[in-house]
Amino acid sequence: MLRRLYAWVMLQAEHPRAMWILQVITFLESSIFPIPPDPLMIPLMLARRAQAFRIAAICTIVSVIGGFAGYAIGLFLWETVGQWVFNTYNLMDKFDATKAGFDEYGAWIIILKGMTPIPYKLLTIAAGVFKFDLLVFTIASIISRGMRFFLLAALLYYFGPPIREFIEKRLELLTVGFLVALVGGFLAFKYL
After folding, report:
1. Which residues neighbour 11 within 8 Å (Cβ) at sequence distance 6 or greater?
2. Rg, Å, the chain Cα set
3. 56: domain range?
4. In this structure, are residues 132 and 106 in contact, taking their beta carbons and an 8 Å threshold?
């Protein structure tokens, strides 16, 4: 079943609407959606290797714009949407530590954690709640998301066929690894 799903995603990656779907997922992942764009971005970059850096640039821009939506949720809708997101991920108990981290490390929190499996949406909402400097937030988000997406693009552009072969040979193992990284990101945010 997993291999059929992979084949279907690879086929969809060649569809003209694939970039639009990727942009919607990337935007929503920065504010409320739990799944990162990687499961669609990687097949899309593999299917359109010549456009990998263009895809990374678009995802960076869209992710930062989505980050502004997350920031707005924290700034204006914390009581309703923001707390709901943190409660959904069972992270309200980590909220005070997040505030202390923002106070002490500021932009470095966004830059370093924004490149990891730690959900970026939690950083964007928290930045809005804490009224973190918007210009610093923007610059840190561009650096963080750009590094994450362009590194992936570079790997897939320069090593695309061997990476595709590696993915296809070890699909089950990589799927488990992705899920572990996703859950690990939430746990890292909660306990670190």
Report:
1. none
2. 17
3. 2-10+22-191
4. yes
CA pair distance 155, 160, nearest whole angstrom: 7
DSSP3 helix / strand / coil % (the chain, rounded to 5):
85, 0, 15
Give the contacts of 44 (CB within 8 A, at least 6 positions apart): 13, 18, 19, 22, 55
Evaluate whether 13 touches 40 at the Cβ level (below 8 Å).
yes
Domain membership of residue 151 (yes or no) is yes
* Residues 73 and 125 sit within 8 Å (Cβ to Cβ): yes
Range scoring the smallest mean pLDDT among 39-48, 63-72, 173-182: 173-182
- 18 or 13, which is more confident? 18
Overall number of domains in the chain: 1
Q: Which positions ≥6 away from 10 have C-beta within 8 Å?
A: 43, 46, 47
| Residue 159 tokens, joined | 């090593």
Domain presence at residue 140: yes
Model confidence at 142, pLDDT cuts 50, 70, 90, reads very high
Between 157 and 95, name the one with better pLDDT. Answer: 157
Question: What does the pLDDT read at residue 48?
Answer: 86
Give domain status of residue 15, yes or no: no
Residue 57 pLDDT greater than 90, yes or no: yes
* pLDDT of residue 167 exceeding 70: no
Does 117 reside within a domain?
A: yes
